[in-house]
Design a protein that fits this description.
Number of domains: 1
Number of helices: 4
Largest sheet: 4 strands, antiparallel
Strand order of the largest sheet: 1-2-3-4
Order of helices and strands: HEEHHEEH
Strand content: 5-15%
Distance between the termini: 15 Å
Shape: globular
């Protein structure tokens, strides 16, 4: 049986991620000075940064076209995720949560890209002078959602994929 209207909690999860992401980005934008780290722990700073590219600032200095490319990609991916969430069989909790997280993260970053022309990043993890690229709540949701999807694919290898039926049926 398909999710249909039962997919509303997963769309709700995506909305919560969008709201939390935008709220924290607003706090960072209003409370931090650009590029000035504020120590939180010995391994973590809050540092306001603007990313005009994709993950790890990929294509951030490409001249501006990347804003439209990544926005279009996010819209397309979000549409696919929304349809997948709606049509997927019920009972696939881990996959549904994962898709909701990725959808919320993609739309959170899309909002920035469309409204600002860049994505606001502010969480900066580091160790012994080595820095992981700055990220935000949306990025974390996308990453956790991807890990959840991988885990689901290992745990549910024998379950049919959307539109498939098992050979013995």
């Amino acid at each position: 049986m398909r999710n249909g209207i039962s997919s509303l909690p997963w769309f709700g999860l995506a909305l919560v991620i969008i709201l939390l992401d935008q709220y924290t980005k607003g706090l960072a934008s209003n409370g931090l000075e650009y590029g000035q780290p504020v120590p939180v722990f010995w391994w973590l700073n809050f540092t306001l940064q603007h990313n005009a590219g994709a993950a790890f600032s990929f294509l951030s200095d490409a001249g501006g076209w990347q804003r439209y490319f990544f926005s279009a990609a996010a819209i397309g991916i979000s549409a696919v995720l929304a349809v997948w969430l709606y049509l997927m069989p019920r009972g696939q909790l881990l996959l549904a949560v994962s898709l909701g997280m990725i959808l919320g993260g993609a739309l959170g970053n899309l909002w920035d890209r469309v409204a600002l022309g860049y994505v606001v990043d502010f969480v900066s993890a580091h160790y012994e002078g080595r820095y992981f690229p700055a990220f935000n709540i949306a990025d974390a949701a996308i990453s956790l959602g991807a890990v959840g999807m991988l885990l689901d694919s290992f745990l549910n290898r024998d379950k049919p994929v959307l539109g498939e039926q098992k050979a013995d049926q």
